[in-house]
Amino acid sequence: MSNFLEILSAAGGRMGSLNGHDCVLDFDDQAAEFAALRDSFGVVDFNNRTQIELAGRDSAAFLHNLCTNDIKSLTPGDGCEVFLTNVQGKIIGHGYVYRTSESCIYETIPSVGAELLSYFDRYLFREQVELIDRSKDRAVLVIAGKGTLDVLNNLGLPVPAELFAHATGELSPASGSSLPCAIRNADLVAEPCFQLSIPRKSIPIAWETLTAAGALPCGSLAWEQARILQGTPVYDIDVTDENLPQEVDRNERTISFTKGCYIGQETVARIDALGHVNKTLCKLQIDGRVPTAGEELYVTDDVEQKKVVGKLTSVAPWPDSAKREDETEWHAIGLGYVRRGSNMPGTNLAGEGFAAAVVR
Questions:
Q1: Residue 263: count of CB within 10 angstroms of its CB
Q2: Counting beta carbons within 10 angstroms of the beta carbon of residue 119, is it exposed (0 to 12), middle (13 to 18) or buried (19 or more)?
Q3: What is the pLDDT of residues 297-311, one digit of tens each?
C-alpha cells in the first residue's frame, strides 16, 4: 500500500482491490460519492496512472506515426484521445495525449510505464525524442461534478474550456507554498471533469486543499459507476489487443482518417471503407440480477432459441438512492460488445436472470 493510500485509509477510506489495483473502495457512502461526481464536487485518487513524457523537437511527429489520431495538428495546450495499434490494426494501448511547448504527455492506465518505454524505444531511430516515465514523480487527482468550475475559479486555477485542452497553474494550500499543477479537461465522467497532474510528493496537500474547498472524497466504486454511465472504456478491461479501433465506437474522438500513414493504418482505413465492424462496445441498462463482467448477452429468435450476440466487459450496480436520468427501474449499468444487428439503441437483450437494453 502506498503512503497516500495509508493516509486515505486513516481518513476513513475503506481499502480494497478493484481491477487488479489497490485502492480506496469508498468513504462509507457510495451513493453520495457517485452523486457528488455528477451533481456537486467530488475528488478521486488517480495517482497511480501512467504518464510518459516524449520530449524533444521530434516528439509530436514520432507519436503521430504510432497512434490513430492527428498529433501533428495539436498546438501547445491541446490534447486528444488515441489508440496505439500494431501492424494488424489491433489496439495495444488507449490513452490521452497532451501537447506542451516542448513535449507530448501520454497518459493511460496504471503500471504500464516500463512496457510503454520499451515499445516507444523500439521505434526510435534518429528522431530527437527523449522518453521519460513521469509516473514516478507526477500524480493525478480527478475532480468532477457541476460545482467544479466554481471551485477552480475560487482557487485561482485556469479552466481549460475545450475537451482535452490543458493549462498550467498553481494550487495554493491554506498553509505552505503554492503547488504547480497541470489542469486537463477530460470527460472521463460527466462534464465538467478535470485531471490535476501534480508533484507526487505533494498529493496529500493537494487532496487536503481540494477537500477544504468542498470536494467530497470519492472511492473507486463510485468512480466505476460514473465512468460506466459515461461510457468511458478502460484498457485491459473494456479494450484489449483483440479489438480493432472501430469496435470501441469512439471513431470521431480517437481516429483521424486523413492523417496519413501510421502503424496499423491500413487495417483501420480498410474497415472505414467497408463501413462497419461486426461488433461494437455499447452502454447498457440492466434490470434484474446484477451480472458480472464476462457474462453473455443474447436475443431469442422466433422459435425461442437463444442466440449469443454479446458479452459484458464492465458492470456496476446502480445506487438505490441515486437519481436516475429517466423513470425506468433499472438496477445496474454496463459496457459490453454487441454484434451488429443487435447493437442499435433501444435493442432489448437478455442474460441469465437479467434483461439489458442498449442505450448507446
A1: 17
A2: middle
A3: 999 765 567 899 999
Separation of alpha carbons 230 and 239, rounded Å: 16
Question: Could you tell me if residue 147 is inside a domain?
Answer: yes
Neighbouring residues of 2: CB distance < 8 A, sequence distance ≥ 6: 22, 47, 48
On whether both 168 and 224 belong to a single domain, the answer is yes
Q: Which of 230, 264, 297 is the last residue of a domain?
A: 230
Domain containing 316 equals 278-358
Using alpha carbons, select from 50, 75, 91 the residue that is nearest to residue 242. Answer: 91
The DSSP element (H or E) to which 14 belongs, if any, is strand 14-18
Q: Which residues of 96-113 are buried (b: 16+ CB within 10 A; e: fewer)?
A: bbbbbeebbbbbbbbebb
Residue at 59 is within a domain: no
pTM of the full predicted structure? 0.94
Cell of 92: 495495444
Integer CA distances (angstroms), 75 to 46, 163, 261, 314, in order: 26, 14, 20, 35
CA–CA separation, 279 vs 149, rounded Å? 37
Peptide bond into 192 cis (omega under 30): yes
